[in-house]
């Protein structure tokens, strides 16, 4: 063989091999690829025939193709198969030669071949399967070229098969992954930090935020309609964690499309993608039901079961919060400490059921008098109550306390063991000011001192805390 012909054959091998790379989408564009391969093989066989090149050279060329190539004679028996066909079907050349097409190709395709042997062009570009030596099905994409004529081989049918097992496995994996993601209970989205766009969101995320998928075609183009995380509460700690570990998780709170509250346990992972660049993988797990249960339990722990007022444990939390608010705003914070006079004697005389009713009567009175959103009422102990009044000066707190004492007296709840013959209240009043040395710890203490003073002075009265109290 001369050098020009040798290089021409190599060029042909390279061209056909490059045209027969594995397809990512076998159905689209495959017709043109297989036409190119078939045409190339025909041209090559004619050129080799004209140069009197042997069939061994032709076999050398087709054995360098990644697609399976099988030549069937007029009796539809294997005449020639390239190395790819032998490897993938598991045959030796000797074993495969002279096998009938029906032993290799799926029966429905074989039947079509037998029926259309005079017009195999109707059978181009089919997706089916071949039988391996062990009887397993090998998915393939196939095309046929009929009436090949050359002195290199007898007239027959050339079949080209493309192995689809990789594509089928990939499709199967993608279907499985899609089913997993569709059925997972978490909302998932991918957010591109490069384009500042959401590139993927699963159906559960739409459901969690109560957004109609059909009405949200722009979801892939912007961050809306999904908030990724509440920036004001987690942005700083999340940024720090992402910088150190590439990962963050924590509780997040959103308002859904309907206006309802949505609590999530959110994880954010940093990943790199060859096409989309740097991505945030954000997974929202709906914990709203659990959060509501936690809030209910916390409310129960912070609530007195009899009066439904805040309890003593809640007092310390609210007191600290309101104290800090008073410090920031430089507003006065007043405290009323209230005691039911001679309550032990009331219980001894009328019993505990009547005692409970007396406690609820007092709690209702306090709730009717202190209605501002900065007024807080607590059951402090057995017969003691505490009222916190933000932005209330001492003289205003004194007036409010006197009003409560008067209204309680007018209710005329009988108390035979009291010198007043009715249920009365004693109240100590203290106010937190910022022009004197006055601390949070001292507020309750001074209100209690004032209450003790009211009791010592005969009860059914108020007492204000002063330096002389």
Could you describe the 3D structure shown?
This protein is of the alpha+beta class and 469 residues long. It folds into three domains: 3-169, 2-Layer Sandwich (Beta-Lactamase); 185-291, PAS domain (Beta-Lactamase), CATH 3.30.450.20; 302-464, Alpha-Beta Plaits (2-Layer Sandwich), CATH 3.30.70.270. 42% of the residues lie in helices and 24% in strands. Strands 2-1-5-4-3 form a five-stranded antiparallel sheet. The chain has a five-stranded antiparallel sheet with strand order 7-6-10-9-8. A five-stranded mixed sheet has the order 12-13-11-14-15, with helices on both faces. A hairpin with a 2-residue loop joins strand 4 and strand 5. Helix 1 runs antiparallel to helix 2 and helix 13 (352-369) packs across helix 14 (394-410). The chain is rod-shaped and about 125 Å long. The termini are far apart. Residues 5-10, 19-28, 149-154 and 219-225 have low confidence and may be disordered.
Using the 3D structure, state the CATH architecture of the largest domain.
Answer: 2-Layer Sandwich
Query: Which geometry do the CA atoms define?
Result: rod-shaped
Oligomer: single chain
**Rg over C-alpha atoms, rounded to the nearest angstrom:** 44 Å
Features:
Beta-Lactamase; 3 domains; 15 helices; alpha+beta; rod-shaped; five-stranded antiparallel sheet
Brief account:
By secondary structure, the protein is α+β, with helices and mostly antiparallel strands. The chain has three domains: 3-169, Beta-Lactamase (2-Layer Sandwich); 185-291, 2-Layer Sandwich (Beta-Lactamase); 302-464, 2-Layer Sandwich (Alpha-Beta Plaits). It contains 15 helices and 15 strands.
């Amino acid at each position: 063989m001369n050098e020009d012909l040798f290089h021409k054959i190599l060029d042909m091998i390279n061209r056909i091999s490059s045209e027969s790379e594995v397809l990512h989408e076998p159905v689209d564009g495959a017709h043109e690829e297989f036409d190119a391969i078939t045409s190339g093989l025909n041209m090559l066989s004619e050129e080799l025939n004209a140069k009197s090149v042997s069939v061994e050279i032709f076999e050398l060329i087709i054995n360098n193709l990644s697609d399976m190539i099988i030549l069937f004679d007029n009796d539809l028996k294997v005449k020639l198969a390239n190395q790819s066909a032998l490897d993938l079907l598991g045959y030796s050349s000797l074993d495969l030669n002279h096998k009938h097409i029906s032993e290799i190709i799926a029966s429905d395709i074989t039947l079509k071949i037998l029926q259309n042997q005079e017009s195999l062009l109707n059978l181009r570009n089919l997706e089916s399967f071949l039988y391996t030596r062990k009887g397993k099905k090998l998915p393939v994409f196939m095309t046929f070229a009929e009436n090949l004529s050359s002195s290199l081989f007898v007239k027959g049918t050339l079949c080209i098969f493309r192995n689809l097992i990789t594509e089928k496995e990939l499709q199967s994996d993608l279907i499985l992954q899609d089913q997993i993601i569709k059925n997972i209970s978490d909302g998932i989205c991918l957010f591109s930090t490069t384009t500042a766009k959401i590139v993927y969101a699963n159906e559960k995320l739409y459901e969690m935020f109560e957004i109609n998928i059909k009405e949200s075609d722009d979801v892939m183009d912007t961050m809306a309609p999904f908030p990724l995380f509440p920036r004001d509460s987690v942005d700083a700690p999340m940024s720090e964690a992402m910088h150190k570990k590439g990962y963050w998780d924590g509780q997040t709170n959103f308002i859904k499309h309907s206006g309802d509250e949505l609590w999530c346990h959110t994880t954010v992972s940093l990943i790199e993608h060859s096409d989309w660049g740097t991505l945030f993988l954000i997974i929202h797990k709906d914990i709203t039901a659990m959060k509501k249960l936690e809030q209910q339990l916390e409310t129960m722990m912070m609530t007195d079961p009899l009066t439904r007022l805040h309890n003593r444990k809640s007092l310390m939390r609210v007191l600290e919060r309101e104290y800090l608010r008073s410090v920031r705003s430089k507003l006065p914070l007043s405290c009323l400490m209230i005691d039911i006079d001679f309550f032990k004697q009331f219980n001894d005389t009328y019993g505990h059921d009547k005692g409970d009713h007396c406690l609820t009567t007092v709690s209702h009175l306090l709730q009717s008098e202190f209605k501002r959103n900065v007024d807080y009422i607590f059951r402090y102990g057995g017969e003691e109550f505490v009222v916190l009044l933000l932005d209330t000066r001492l003289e205003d707190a004194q007036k409010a306390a006197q009003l409560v004492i008067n209204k309680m007296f007018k209710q005329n709840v009988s108390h035979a063991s009291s010198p007043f013959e009715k249920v009365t209240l004693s109240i100590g009043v203290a106010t937190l000011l910022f022009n004197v040395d006055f601390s949070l710890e001292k507020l309750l203490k001074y209100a209690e001192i004032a209450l003790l003073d009211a009791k010592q002075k005969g009860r059914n009265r108020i007492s204000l805390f002063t330096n002389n109290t």
